[in-house]
Amino acid sequence: MDTPRSDREIVKLVIRHYAQFQPSHGDIWLDTVFDEAQDRYALMQVGWDRGRRVRGNLIYVTLQDNQVWIEYDGMEQGITDDLIAAGIPSERIVQAFLPELKTALTA
C-alpha cells in the first residue's frame, strides 16, 4: 500500500475511534469530516450544553509533504500515540500546534 493512502486510512481510523465517544455532559454529538481531495481530516463537536451552543474542532489533521500534520488535538491523551501504534512512524508526524522550535519533536 502506498504511504499517502495508508496515512489517510490510519488517520480516518483514529478519528473514527474518537467519534464513538459520548461527551460526558450536554446534548452533543461528534461528526467526522474527511476531505480526501485536499487531505484534511477533522472531528467536530456540535450540540448544546446548559443552554449554550457547543461547536468546534476536537481533532484536525492534514497530510502534506509525506507527513502527518496534527494541526489541532483537543483529546485528553492526544492522538499521536494512536497514530504511531497504527503504523505511522513518529518521524513523519508533525505536531503543528506546538511553537515552531518544537514541531520536530514527536511522540
UniProtKB/TrEMBL annotation:
Signal peptide: none
CDD domains in the record: XisI-like (cd16382)
Annotated coiled-coil segments of the chain: none
Gene3D superfamilies: XisI-like
Pfam families, sorted: XisI (PF08869)
Entry protein name: XisI protein
Organism: Stenomitos frigidus ULC18
